[in-house]
Write a structure and sequence with these properties.
six-stranded parallel sheet; alpha/beta
Length: about 150
């Protein structure tokens, strides 16, 4: 990744039932969920079962529905799985994830996250800040923190 944002915030998936009528407007069609999600977040983490089941047409639609600076971070799957060929699709091997992912649900301490962002800035490598549960409050706090820090 070159000249991209240092801190990218998102959730594991964009289809959380609790988000209907709260995060997502009630009348938002299902096929508009990802583009709407992309107005608030810069990345999404996809479990292996989700991304491996997606067809080429589905991947083409997902990439079309999101902005150029939006990233899909894929949970490592079985060895036979091939990720889509796009610089916006990243495979999160365990080693890569250890150096590039912060799980908000496991470590919601914003001071600790700020320290990690500062450490990550020294490397120039991106940090993906994700919530497995889709806790919108935590995600908003992470977005605010990155803005306050200038990222």
């Amino acid at each position: 990744m070159t000249s991209n944002p240092l801190v990218l915030v998102g959730a594991s998936g964009w289809q959380h039932p609790a988000w209907q009528g709260g995060f997502y407007p009630e009348d938002l069609p299902d096929d508009w969920l990802l583009p709407y999600y992309n107005t608030q977040f810069q990345a999404v983490h996809l479990p292996a079962a989700v991304w491996q089941a997606a067809s080429e047409a589905t991947w083409a639609q997902w990439l079309h529905d999101t902005q150029d600076g939006f990233y899909f971070v894929l949970e490592a799957g079985d060895a036979a799985s091939v990720k889509p060929a796009s610089e916006r699709v990243l495979l999160a091997t365990p080693a890569w994830e250890a150096g590039h992912v912060w799980w908000l649900d496991e470590a919601p301490d914003l001071r600790a996250l700020a320290q990690r962002i500062t450490q990550q800035a020294a490397t120039g490598e991106p940090l993906f800040v994700f919530s497995r549960s889709g806790d919108v409050g935590l995600l908003e706090q992470a977005n605010t923190l990155k803005q306050v820090m200038g990222y």
